[in-house]
Specification:
Blueprint lengths: L2 H10 L6 H13 L17 E2 L5 E5 L7 H4 L7 H12 L20 E5 L12 H17 L5 E5 L1 H13 L16 E2 L6 E5 L4 H4 L6 H14 L3
Parallel strand pairs: 2-3, 2-4, 4-6
Antiparallel strand pairs: 1-3, 5-6
Helix pairs in contact: 1-5, 4-8, 5-6
Length: 228
């Protein structure tokens, strides 16, 4: 990680802008889930991570209460992450298919993962105000990830957050507004190419709304758009 990204991470993890999120993430870290009763929870904002030379940004919703909020790394230690990292490994963006802790040896190759909201929200539902409060962290992050060409938006919340991020970086809001959908693609030459992907939540993977081939196809397209 570059010195600039490391400094940004140090600032992110100290953030206390949103009282509701601060209270919830710390409550979860104190009370814990029975399966993780002997573990020390992270209980702070979860920074992005990956390859500083990434050409693909993967944008999620927020850390899971007992996933990233426990392990300190987004999508690490929960079922959504199991799906995501397996897909990233199959498509060449990760060196291993699983991620259980922040020190398990996982490395991303040409990709960076972050979330629209950096703290675990109650019921996994951040508010628009909380999303907006987190937006400056994403602006700063993208300002340091200068090789990015594509953003894969995991769910409609991330898609909307990406459109806000685009404007916050000084680019015009697209008209008409592009609609989210799995496999949706938008590129008007003004910003990153946006790709839509259903979120790898259990609600989607257990019901078959999102399958492994569907997930892999999105990341294969991201690789194609960045020149392989």
């Amino acid at each position: 990680m570059t010195d600039e990204l490391a400094r940004l991470e140090a600032e992110v993890v100290e953030c206390r802008r949103c009282p509701r999120l601060v209270a919830w993430r710390e409550q979860v870290a104190r009370e814990k889930r029975a399966a993780f009763a002997n573990e020390t929870y992270w209980g702070r904002p979860v920074p992005g991570f990956g390859d500083p030379a990434a050409r693909v940004l993967i944008l999620g919703l927020a850390p899971a209460a007992h996933g990233g909020n426990r392990t300190g790394r987004v999508f690490t230690g929960d079922r959504s992450g199991d799906w995501l990292f397996a897909g990233l490994h199959r498509t060449g963006f990760a060196n291993q298919p699983t991620s259980i802790s922040a020190d398990d040896g996982l490395a991303l190759l040409g990709a960076w993962i972050t979330a629209a909201v950096r703290c675990a929200p109650p019921a996994n539902k951040p508010t628009p105000a909380e999303r907006d409060a987190c937006l400056p962290w994403s602006v700063a992050e993208l300002g340091l990830l200068t090789d990015l060409r594509v953003v894969v938006c995991l769910g409609a919340f991330a898609w909307d957050a990406a459109l806000l991020l685009r404007v916050a970086q000084g680019h015009p809001a697209p008209r008409p507004r592009p609609r989210f959908g799995h496999g949706a693609e938008f590129d008007d030459g003004e910003w990153l190419t946006m790709l839509g992907c259903f979120h790898p939540s259990q609600q989607n993977t257990f019901t078959g709304k999102l399958t492994e081939p569907m997930l892999d196809a999105v990341f294969a397209r991201a690789r194609e758009l960045t020149g392989g």
